[in-house]
Amino acid sequence: MFEQHSWVKYKGKPAYIIFVHTGYLYEIMVLTDTSSYKVFVTENEITDIQIPKISLNNCYLYKSFRINYLPPDTVATVTAIENGPYPYVIETKYGTCNVSPFDLQPINY
After folding, report:
1. How far is CA 90 from CA 10, 39, 47, 101, 106, in A?
2. For residue 109, what pLDDT is reported?
3. What does the H/E/C string look like for 54-69?
4. So what's the pLDDT on residue 31?
5. Helices then strands (H, E): number in the chain?
6. How many CA atoms lie within 13 A of 32 on its CB side?
7. What Å distances lie between residue 28 and 16, 34, 55, 71, CA to CA?
8. Cα(93)–Cα(75) distance, rounded to whole angstroms?
9. 69-91, pLDDT tens digit by residue?
10. Residues 46 and 8 sit within 8 Å (Cβ to Cβ)
11. What is the pTM of this model?
12. Which of 33, 41, 55, 73 minimizes the number of CB atoms within 10 Å of its CB?
C-alpha cells in the first residue's frame, strides 16, 4: 500500500498521490514534460520511484516545460521547501516559482 502525499511511478512517469480512496484506489497527479494530469489508478498500476535529493540553497538546472515563462536549462536556486507536489521554491532570473523534485537536475561542475 502506498501513502497519500508520496511519489510513485505511473506508466514510466513520476506521479504524486493526492488521495487514497478505500485503500486500493489512488487519485494521482502525473507529471509529463509539458503538463500534469489527474487520474484514478489501482495499486497494481503504480510502483515505487526514487525521488531526487534536492537541498536548500543549492543550484540546479530547471529541466521541464510546464512553466511557460521558464525555459528549460535555466539555473535555479532552491530558496524554500514546502509541502505538496511542487514543494521546491526556486529563484531564477525570470522570477520565483514552485517545482517538483523531478523538474530539477543537479549542476555538476
Report:
1. 26, 27, 28, 11, 13
2. 66
3. CCCCCEEEECCCCCCC
4. 95
5. 0, 10
6. 7
7. 5, 17, 25, 26
8. 8
9. 899 999 999 999 999 999 999 99
10. yes
11. 0.91
12. 73
Contact 31, 102 (CB under 8 A): yes
Supply φ then ψ for residue 43, to 5 degrees. Answer: -60, -35
Pairwise CA distance, residues 52 & 70, whole Å: 20
Q: Looking at the DSSP assignment, which residues form a beta bridge with residue 20?
A: 26
SS3 39: strand
25 in Cβ contact with 40 (< 8 Å): yes
Give the pLDDT score at 66: 86
Q: Where does residue 38 fall: left (phi above 0), alpha (psi -120 to 50 degrees), or beta otherwise?
A: beta
Q: Residue 19: what pLDDT?
A: 96
Q: What is the pLDDT of residues 13-67, one digit of tens each?
A: 999 999 999 878 999 999 998 899 999 999 999 999 999 999 999 999 999 988 8
